[in-house]
Records
---
Amino acid sequence: MAPVKSIGNKGSFLIKELKKKIYSFPSYGKEEDNIVLIDPKKSGKVTDIIFGVDADEKPVLKIINHAIKNFGTIEKPKEKLYDSYEFGRIVKGKKVTHKVNFIKKKVSKKTPTKVFEKGTTEVFNQALHNNKKFKSASDILNDKETRKELNNIFKGYEDALSGWVHTYYEQQKEFLKEFGKDEWSVFEYDNKKDFVSFFSDQIKRVGRTLTKDKDGKMMVIEPVGRYEVWNPSDIWAAYKLPQVQKDIKDNLSPETQSLAELNTMLIDMFEEKRLVGISLKLIGPKKEAKLVYRNDKPENMKIANIEKLEFRDIKFKLDNIWQKAEKGGGTVYADYGKSFGVNFMRTDSGIAFSTQVKGTSAQGGNTPVDMVVKLLEQNISNNTYTKDINKYPKNFEEFAKEVDEYEKLYNIIKPYFNGAPPFGGTDNSFVMTLDKAFSAKSQTGKLGVNGTAKLMFIKFFGNAFKIRDQNKKKEFWTDILYLGMKVGEKGEFAPHIKIGEKTS
C-alpha cells in the first residue's frame, strides 16, 4: 500500500512523527537527556538524528521502517543501520523528499548549571583577589592559572567551556565596574560555606505569615518554601563572610522568622555593601552585559517598561488551546510589549509559567504555581482553577458531565483566539478536537492527558479573564510576570542584582 502521509514543509510532519516514534522507546528518554539529538540543518532539507554511543541500537530499524511505511522512500532499504535515507515520494516527476541522516557518535553531556555558576565564581575570584585584568574573553582562556581552574571545573564537559567564556568576561566586567573597589571575601560555591547553602537552610524557618499559638509562641502559617522561590541569586558577594552569617543568625529568631524581617535585614546589608546576591544570566555572543538592581528600594521593585503598559497592550496567543488535537494544547503565550513575555507550558503535572526577556539569550525565571493560584483566589471570588491535574476530566465521558461549565469558560476566552471554532454543534467544533485529544496518546504513551491539558488551559484563562476591573486586570497579569522575574513591591523576594544581557 502506498504511503498517504505528506512529509510537510521542510519535512516538518516527517520529523514530528520520527520524534514521536523515537520517544516511544523508554530506552531513549527525552531529547534533553542527549541520548538522541534531532538536529535540523539550516537548509531545511536535511535533518540529523544523532544517537549517543551508548544508545540501544535495537529500535533504530523499527524507527526507519516506520518512516518508510508512513512517508515512503525513493531509495532501496540500506544494509547499514546508521545511514542516510531520503523519505518522501516523486510527484509529477519531481522529488518531494526530506533527507534524514541516522548517525551514531559521542554526544556531549548536558552541562549542569552548577558547572557554569562555579566557573563564574572562579573568574570573579581571579579578578578580585589575584588582580587579574581581563580585557577580553580571550584573556581569560590565555591566563594559565584561570584556564587550569576552569578546566578542572568543566572536567567532563570541556566542549561547553568556550561557549561560556564571553559570559564570564562580561559578568566580571560589570561587577567590577559597580563593586570593584570593595573588599569582598573569596567567592564560595557549593561547599556548605556559600550563601545559597546557608539560606537554603535558613529559609526552612521563615514564614510569609506568622501567628502565635495558644502558648504565645510564634508559629509559621504560610512558609516561604524553597530558596529558589524567594531568591534568584546564584552566587553571593560578602564582606567578611563568616561575620555576615553570624549577624544574620544573631538577629533572627532561631526557630521562627518573618520574611519581611529577613528581607529588611538583607536590604540594609545590601546598601552597606556587606552582602550582595547575584543572579547570573547567559550573555549571547557579541552581546554586552548590564547590571541592574532588584528589590532594594521602591524604584527597583518594578520594571519601567511594564509599568507603562495597560491590559490592552498585553497580547495573548492562545490558539494552541483549540488547535493541535494530538497534543495537550502545546505552549501558549502572553507578550508584554516588545521586551517581556510569559510562556504557559504544559507539564506532566499541569501548567508551568515561564517568563521571558525577549531579544536576549536567557530566560527570566519561573513563576511559582502556588503564587499564581493565590493571585486568582485574591481576585476572583468564584475561582474554579486548581493546579491539581487529577481534579480535571481524564476522558471524554468525564468531560461530558462538566460540559456546561467548560462551554462558559471557552466563550470567555474565545475573543482572545484567532479564528477559533464554535464550542460544539459541528464536525469542526472544539468539542470534536477535544474528543480527538482524549483519544490520542501523549509522547509518553498515556491516553487522556492531552485532553486534560487542554481543559486546564481553558479553566485557567477562563477564570483569569473573569477579572473585570481594568486596574486589577493589569495588576494580575503583570504580577505573574513579576513573580517569575522575582521582582515585587510586596516583599515576596530578596534584594539582589542581576547581571544579564543588555537589551536595545
Note: The first strand starts at residue 36 and ends at 40.
---
Amino acid sequence: MQNPVISRAFDFSDGVNRQSAVTNVRETETRTSENVQIDQDGVSLFRYGISSIIYPDATFVVGTGIFYYEPDTGTAQVIKTAGNAGSTDFAFLSLDSGTWTPITESGFTFANHIACQGLMANQLLYVAARGGSNRVMRYNGTGVVQIATSPVCQGLAYFKRRLFAWGDTSAPHTLYFTATGDLENWMTSDSGSLTVAVGDGDEIVSVKALYDRLIVLKTDSFYVVEGNDHGTFRLVEVFSEDCGCAAAGSVVQIENLLYYMGRDKVYATDGTSVTSVSDSVQSILANRARASDPYVFAVHHRKRNMYMLFYGSPGGTDLDVALVFKYKSSVGGTSVNAHSGWTTFVSFSPVQAGMSFRNAVSKLDLVYLVGADSNLYAFETYDNGAEITEDDGVAVTGVVRSRWDDGGDISLSKRLRRMFLVFSTSAPSGRVALVRYVNLGVPACKAYQFLVSGARTGNITLQVFTDFDESTVRQTRTITPPTGVTFNGLMRGIVQMQITAERGQEA
C-alpha cells in the first residue's frame, strides 16, 4: 500500500516572526519578508518603488526635515530644512517649479542641528530644531523668523490652543507652553511651564497631543498632562520604566494611537496603556545601528495602513532600512481590519527625513523622502497618481522565506512531490490570481522550508531547504509568468508531500 500524500498550505498575511522557535511559527507567518508589503487582503506584495523626483540641491545637501505648508488660503508648499555639507550653514528651502529656493531668514541664524520637527497651527508652520540651539521658528509662506521670547527647544506640540515646547538644556525637565490662542506669547497672560520628574536622569524625548491628553515620552518613562488651562494642568505618571522613547522622530499618531520606537521595541499607546506591537521582530530592531537613533524617523503611509520606521543597518549611521508595520485599521470596514504584520524594506538609497501628506491639488495621500544624496524621493505614487514600481529604474527584488514545516509530525520522513504557488497578478484579461506549480525532487526530510524571490517583472525563483539548514539549497526552480502577466506578489503556497517512513524507521 502506497504511503499517503498530504498537503500543507501557507499564506503570508501576518508577516515576519523572528522570535518564536522555528517550529512554532504560524502558517500565516514568515521567517523573512523582505521588500514586500502586506496588503489589505493579506497578499505579500513586492514593495513599490522609491524614485527621485527632483534633482539634488547643489548647496544644502544634508536634509534635516521636510514639511507640507498648507494654509487655508494661498498656495501649498513643500518645505525642507537642510545643511551645507562640510559647514554649519543651515537653511529653509521651498520647492518651486522643480527647484529648491532658499527662504529668507530674518534676524537670526539657523544653528547646526540633527533634525527638525514642524507643525501647522493658525495657518503658520512652526518648527523646532532638535540637537540645536534655536528657539521656536515660524514660517508664514514667505519668510522665517525666530520667536525671541520662546525657549530654546528641541520639539513642539499643539494642545488646548497652545504651543508646548521642551528641550532647553538649562531646564531639561521643563515643558513650556504659550498663552491660550496666542502661539507666540511665551511670557505673559496664562503662559507658563510644567516640570516633569526633576532629577530622574530621564530627559524629555517627545510630546504629542492625543485626544484630551498630552503624552510626554521620556527616555525610560511615560507621563500625561491632563487639564484644560494653566490652573488645571496636572502631570500624571503612567509608567516609570521600560516604555520610554528612543527616537523623537519615530513618534507618529495613527488613528487613536501613538506609535513610537523604544530601546528594542515599537510601542502603541492610547494614553492610558502601552502595548508592544513588535515582539515578533524584536531581534531585527535590536540589531539596528544604535548610532542612528537620533536621526531615526517614521512615516504614516495612510493609503496602505503602514507605519514605516527608517533606521540604520548594523555598522553605519545611514538610514537605509525600513521596518514596516501593516496595522489593523479601526475604520473603513472589515477588509482593512483583516491583517497586520511586519516586513522590511531594504536596498534603497539612504534617506534623512520624510513625511506623508495629502496633496492639496491632486488630493492624493503621498509619501516624500529626503535622500542622503539630497534628492527628493517619492514612494509608491507620484503626485500625478502614477505608480512607482522600481527604485529609479532598478527592479525591486522581494524575498519571502517560509516557516519550517514538518508536515504535522517531525518524526516522519517525507518526500516533497510538488508545490503550488498562487500569485497576485496584473493581467490584461483582468485575472487577479494565477496558480503555478512545480514538481520537486527533494531528498526525504523531516522538515522543509521554501524561499521565493523575484520582482514585478521577470521570473520568480523558488528554493527549497530541508531539516533546518538554511545555508544549503536542496533544489531550485524557476517560475516564468505568462506573456503579458506581471507577478505583483505572493498570495499562498501549497506543498504536497508523501510519507516515506513510519516513526522509528530509516528514511
Note: The CA atoms of residues 35 and 375 lie 21 Å apart.
---
Amino acid sequence: MMKILYDKHIEEYYILPFKDMVTDLRSVKKHVYEPGDVILVKSYGDTDQHIWKHFLKIIKYMDIPTFFINIETSNTTLEDDLNKLCEEIIPRDGKIKVSLTHGAPVVSQPYINNFDIPDTICPYPFVNVDIRNNGNITPCCIHKDNENKFNCNASKDSISNYLDSDGLKDLKDDFLNGNRPIGCQPCWTFEDQNVPSMRTKASTVMQDKVFEINYHSTSKDVFALDLKLGTTCNLKCRICGPNLSSSWYQEIKHNFPETDKLPPIKKMDWLIDNSNDFWKEITSHLHNIGYISMQGGEPFLDRKHYVLLEYLIKNNQTSTYIHYNTNGSIYPSELIEILNKFDRVGISFSIDNIAQKFDYERFGSNWDIVSTNLKKFSNLNRSKFTFDLHPTISVLNILDADDIKTLADELDFGIYFNRLDTPDYFNVLNIPAGKRNFVINRLNQSKHKIVTDLTAMISTEVVYNLNQEFWLEINRIDKVRKENFVTTYPEMSALMRSDDRNL
C-alpha cells in the first residue's frame, strides 16, 4: 500500500525561504523506509539543474534512498537530466522513477535562482567568524589574509566591522562567481592532492546548517564562532610554536634569544585588556548562533570564556552546540558541571600518538595522565557528550596512524585525521619520494579504511626537499629538551636520512 510521506512541487522552493527544502526533507527522514513509502516530487514549471542538484545533495546527506523518490513532470528531458545528476552526486543509488504527466505550474511569478551555487563554494565566509590567537578576525582558521583585506582585530574592532568589511564582501563574491580565492589556497592545495580539506569537511562540521545557507542573501547573521582566546598552554608541541603556546614562547625566549623576534607576550594575549567590551559585543551576535568552538592555546586553562557559557545558560540558549579542541592533559571538573547544562557538547582531543611518542610530540605532557583523562571523559553521558581524536598527521606520526585509530576504537571515540600544513619541514610531503613506498605499505597493512586512505596524503609527485631544515629543527629542540628523535623514531629517522640506506 502506497504511503506518501512528502508531496511537493519543487518550483515552490524558488519563492519559499531557502532553508525550507532541507527542513521539509528532514521531517520525512526515517531510519528504515517501508516498501510503500513514497517521496513525491512534482515539476510542472520552469526548473533547472541547480535546484535538482541541491535536492539530490540533501538526499545524499540524509541517506534517503532514491528508490523511494517518485518524480511527476511534464518535462520530457527531465528523466535523463536527473539520472545524470544522480550518477554524479549519488553514484551508489539507482535511477529515479520519473512519470510523464500533465500539470499546471504552481509558481507563475518570476523567481530568483538562489540555488545557483558553484561546486567550489565554501560556507565559512557566509556563516562563520574565526578569531585567531592574536585577535585577528577571519572567515576560518586557515585562511591566509596576506594582504590584510579584512584588517580587523578583536582587541579594537567589532565583529560587525568585520561583517561589513570590503574584504569579506569580495571573498563572498569570489566564491559566488565560481572562483578559487587566493586566500583559501591551503584548501585548494589539499583538494588538488586528493586530500580532504577544511572546505570539503564543512558538511560534517556544520551538518545542521550547511543546506540552510542562502549564499545569495545579504544577511549578516553569524551561525558559528571559532574562538581562540589567547596562547595560554601547558605544552610545547613539536608541530606548534611560540605564536600559539605560552610555554613554547618561554622556551624560545630562554634558549634562543638570538633568533627571537616575538612581541611581548602581553600583546599576544589580546583579550586581557578589553574582555568586558569583547564579551558584551559577542553576546549581541548570539541570537542566531548554533555552534561555538573553543580552541587555544589550551582552552581548558582559560576561564575567561565561562562568562559566555553562563550568558547562554541564563538566556535559555543551551541548544547551542559547544565544542572544544584540547590536548587531553586536563580534566576540568568545574567546567564539565557547566557543560552538563547544554544539550550537545563535542570535545576533540589532539592525540597525535601514544605512549613515549606522544610525550615527545607534545612535550610537557604525561601519557599516563592523558590516557587516564581520556577514560574519564569516555564515562560521561554519551547522549550529551561526543568525543573524537583529532590527530594531525605529520612526518612524526604517519607510521603510527593505526595505533591512534586503535586507541579511538578502544575508547569508542570518533577519529578525524588532519594533514599538517605548516611548518613545511614536518609536512608529510617532506618525506623523500624514494622512501614513500615504505610509508604507503605500512598504511596499507591497516584493516581500517580511514588509515589506508591516508596514502593519498603522500601519493603525489610533490616533494618539499627540506631535509636539512627538518634535521636542524629536530636537533635544535632535542638538545634543549634532552630528547632523541633517532632512538624514539628509528624507522622515520631512517627514512629522513639524506643517504640511500634502507630500513
Note: The two ends are 66 Å apart (CA to CA).
---
Amino acid sequence: MVSRAFTVAFEGVEARLVEVQCAVSAGLPAFSIVGLPDKAVSEARERVRAALTSMSIALPSKRITVNLSPADLPKEGSHFDLPIALALLAALDIIPNDLVEQTVALGELSLDGRLVAVLGALPAAMAAAEHDRVLLCPKACGPEAAWVGAAQVLAASSLGDVVRHYTGQSPLPPAEPGEVSHTAPGRDLRDVKGQERAKRALEIAAAGRHHIMMIGAPGSGKSMLAARLPGILPPLSAAEALETSMVHSLSGLLDEGGISRNRPFREPHHTASMAAIVGGGRGAKPGEISLAHNGVLFMDEFPEFPRPVLETLRQPIETGEVVVARANAHIRYPCRFLLVAAANPCKCGHLADAARACARAPQCGEDYLGRISGPLLDRFDLRVEVPPVSWRDLDLPDSGPSSADVAARVGAARARQLARFAGRDGLRVNADAEGALLEEIATPDPEGRALLLRVAERFGLSARGYHRVLRVARTIADLEGTASVRHPHVAEAVSYRITNSAAAEARR
C-alpha cells in the first residue's frame, strides 16, 4: 500500500503542491528518499527515525521508499520532515491515511519529536486554501499561517501532538492569527529645518509612488528626509499587507506571526552585492528590492553602489517585478517600491562651496554623478537639489507641516487614485498608469500642454520623461483635489524634472 501526504515546494512567493508518497515493501531494511531532494531533505531520514524512536515507534525491518512528486521539481529545505513522517505513519497504519491526504504539512523535526518553525508558512497556507486542504504546521508558524482565513490551520508543538490529533485522542484547536501591528512613526517631518522644496517633493513622491533623487552636500538633511518618508505614507491595505508578508515570510522576517500594516523601509549599504539587492544566492531568495515591496527602498550614497548593481534596477523600476534567473529555475518576485536615492554632488561633497571644494572642481562632480547612467537617471520622476543648511537656521523653531498633516493630504490623494483605478487589476497609484489610460487621466489644459512641449523641445525630454512629467502633474492635481491637470501643475512637475544645473547648461 502507498500512503500519501502533501506539502509544498517554493518557487518565489508561489508554493507548488508536492505529493509525498510512502511505500513499505518486503526486502532488505532501507530508508530512501527520491524525487530530487537536496541535502536537507535527504537528511530527513535520520531526523524522522530519531523522532519516531523518541515516541517508542520502531521502524519495520522492511524497505521504506519515499517519493516526492513531481519528481523533476527540486525539493529544498527542512520543512519536508513533517510530511515525510506523516506519510510514513500512515503507511504503518498508526494514523488514518484518508485524513492525512486532506492535509498540507510543513515543519522541521528535532530528534526528540518537537516541531521547529520553518520559513514560508504564509504562502503554504495560500496553497492549502487553493486546493481546499487543511494546513498542519509547527506551533510557532500557526499565527502567521492563520492569516489566510480560507484555510483551516492546525499548529502542533510536537509529532506526538500530531499523532494524538489524528487518532482522536486530543484534537488540535485551530490556530489564531497573530497581532496586527501599526506603530506610529517616531520621526516627524518638522524635525528637518528648512528644505521646504525637498519636503514638498517628498510629499508628491509619497502621494503617487514616484521615484525621487536628492543631490546635496553632506549634512544637508537627505538621510533625515528619507527616514521620515514612511511616516507620511498611508498604512498598507489588507491586500498589500498580505503581498508584503508573503515575501517577508520566505525571508523569516515576520515577528511572532504578526502582520505589520507599516510600509517596509529598506536601506541597504552601498557595499551590498547584486544578489543582496536584486535577489539570488542559495535558493534564489528575495533581495532588498522585493523586501521593499509596497514600501520604500532608500539607497544612500547612490553613486557608490557598483555599476552592475545600479543597472539591474532599471527593469524592476519599470515592471514592478524581478526575475531571478538561474540554470534550473526562473524565480519571480514582486517589487513595486518607491526608490529614494541620495547622492553628494561630487566626491568631496562641497562642489557648490568654492572655499571648500577640491582642486578638481567642477570636473569631479561630472565624474562622480557620471557613475549613474542616463537611462537609470531618466527613471527618476523627481530630482531635487538639497542645499546645505546654515548653522544659524538650526536655532530657528520648527516650521512647516508635521508628518501627520502631510500624511492626511497624502492619504486623501491616494484615496482619489484608488477610486480612479477601481476595477483595474495591478493599478493603484498614478505611477502605474501608462498608455491610453495616462492620456485619459492626465491630459493637461492647452496652456499646460504648450508648456510641456516647450520644455520637451528645450531640454530634450525623452518619451519616458514626458510621460513621467504627466504622472507627477496628475499627482500634484490630486493633492490639490482638482479633477483636471492645469498649467501650474505641469509647471511644478517640470521644475522637479529639470535640475538647476541642467537648466544652467541649457541656457549656455
Note: The chain has three domains: 2-166, 189-400, 433-508.
